[in-house]
Amino acid sequence: MKIFSAQQIRNCDQFTIENEPISPIKLVERAAETCARWIENHFNKTSEFQVFCGNGNNGADGFSLARILYTKGFDVNVFINEKNSKYSQEAEINLKRIREISGIAVYDFNEIEDLGFQENSVLVDSVFGTGLNRKIEISVKNLIQKLNHLSFPKISIDIPSGLFADRSLEENQIVFNADETLSFQFWKKSFLHPETGKFCGNIHILEIGLSQKFIENEHSDYFVIDETEIHKIYRPRNQFSHKGNFGKTTIVAGSFGKIGAAVLATKAALKSGSGITFARIPACGYFVLQSVCPEAMVEVSGENFVTDFPVENDHVLGIGPGLGTNSETQKSFFEFLKNYKNPVVLDADALNLIAQNTEILSSIPRNSIITPHPKEFERLFGSTENSFERLELARKKSKEFGIYIVLKDHHTQVITPEQKVFYNITGNSGMAKGGSGDVLLGIITSLLAQNYSPEEAAVFGVWLHGKAGDFAAEKNSKEAMLPSDLIDELGNVFKILA
Ligand SMILES: NC(=O)C1=CN([C@@H]2O[C@H](COP(=O)(O)OP(=O)(O)OC[C@H]3O[C@@H](n4cnc5c(N)ncnc54)[C@H](O)[C@@H]3O)[C@@H](O)[C@H]2O)[C@@H](O)CC1
Ligand SMILES: [K+]
Predict the structure, then answer these.
(1) Is residue 335 part of a domain?
(2) pTM over 0.95, yes/no
(3) What's the pLDDT score for residue 166?
(4) C or N terminus of the chain, fewer CB within 10 Å?
């Protein structure tokens, strides 16, 4: 699914109004009705809704929602900024409709303290939407601060007030802290970054029938990985195929004390479809690997750490988990990078070795995939102010070195040399444990070996990994789930695709 900027969303609204055609007020009504349906399905009629409305069309949505909820039998109060009487046309019409209903009281933002809300209150934030274009003024700031201190359920309409749709926060910005965000039609970039996404609570993207023609034709470099895309990428195994059709994967990993990383990566490669799987590990891990992964072939290199790298051109190599940073490993790894031309997958210590001498970055074979977490990324490419800037730096570096960067985070981003960005929305905090990255490297390497393109392997790989994590959390809890549980769940994820 494409992600648009605030300006592109405005253009999409406008295009829909002109071409469907539909009047602006009817479009607001459609958006509000969609929210009301969601609310009706999630709250019972004893709830009392306190709806806070701004002056733009986000406010218009709020007024309309208040009216619809009232007609559905909910108790509703509406709050406005009496001092600011300049409303958008749609907001003005909808506020007038509210004033005509005697059962809905309209109060000023200032009155919330005198009123004291009922215990069954639900707060609805319809103050600012995607039209926010500057820092919030003091009176609204005070309101949001006060509301954030109340412990009632909080719903934001379209976007929590105070967030920009497509960029980071201003300094000292106050943002409504939602439990649920009901957002129209598109994911917004700010929902997907940690500094801003933390204000959104659970995100629900509600379809409001904006123009498909506009959405198809409008260019964007930013995407959310959705299941429809994954179905297009996934290739079921042909009945007449044999193991030679699914590639050869070699995992180069492990050192004394870190053989577990090699085991996880190798098992993950085996469980995500690789035809023939090799592990190149130091001798100290030989018996462990052979016993826990009997399907893999083991090649030994060095005693306690890997001392030479394979150069078989028909294998796809995934290098790094638990490799260690011994100087002998580094020397042969760098030698290998200088001579090897096929795409490889690099993670963990492979990246730490490169970070010790970043000149070698330009020797990474074109179209390789690297999978750094934010700290590893910083060691490779330098620090940035926030995750929005980090993403833009990653786009630049992807292009410069002709590599795919899988920037691991709560919503992992896959960045391509063409500067496209794919945000992953599967996965959960139970995966924030040592070993998860080793599993991801195994999956992506295996997919690349099976002839998925680097973009497909990275996008499909992060999605599979996250989905397996979601299944594992459901069975074991986020606390108790282990990276090995992700590997066990891969089968169930493939089953939903077949
Ligand atoms: N345009 C449309 O057709 C649709 C719009 N929709 C709603 O409309 C919203 C966007 O509406 P608007 O573009 O009117 O903007 P908003 O309702 O987000 O409000 C911003 C308004 O306040 C002003 N403003 C911006 N920053 C401010 C600040 N810091 N302090 C004080 N005032 C500030 C802006 O000039 C604008 O008038 C969406 O988020 C969505 O909720 C939906 O109803 C769907 C259809
Ligand atoms: K809002």
Answers:
(1) yes
(2) yes
(3) 95
(4) C
CA–centroid distance for 486 within its chain: 18
Distance (angstroms) between ligand 2 centre and the Cα of 59 equals 8
Q: Can you give the pLDDT at residue 324?
A: 97
Instruction: Judge if 57 and 191 occupy the same domain.
Output: yes
Q: How many domains does the chain have?
A: 2
Decide if 1 is inside a domain: no
Whether 234 and 196 map to the same domain: the answer is: no
Domain co-membership, 189 together with 279:
no
Q: Which of 57, 156, 204 most suits a substitution to test ligand 1, by most atoms within 8 Å of the C-beta?
A: 57
Q: How is residue 247 written in tokens?
A: 């590639």
Task: Decide: 324 in ligand 1 pocket, CB within 6 A.
Answer: no
pLDDT digits (tens, 9 = 90+) for 407-461: 999 999 999 999 999 999 999 999 999 999 999 999 999 999 999 999 999 999 9
Q: What is the DSSP string of 252-285?
A: E--BTT-HHHHHHHHHHHHTTT-SEEEEEE-GGG
What rounded mean pLDDT belongs to the chain?
Answer: 96
What integer pLDDT is reported at residue 240 of this predicted model? Answer: 81
> What does the pLDDT average to over 203-218?
98
| Segments forming the whole domain that contains residue 158 | 6-220
Taking the C-alpha atoms of residue 274 and residue 294, their distance in angstroms, rounded to an integer, is: 14
Q: Do residue 174 and residue 277 come from a single domain?
A: no
Residue 31 CA: which ligand is closest?
A: 1
Q: Is the pLDDT of residue 29 over 80?
A: yes
Question: Which of 220, 244, 274 is a domain's end point?
Answer: 220
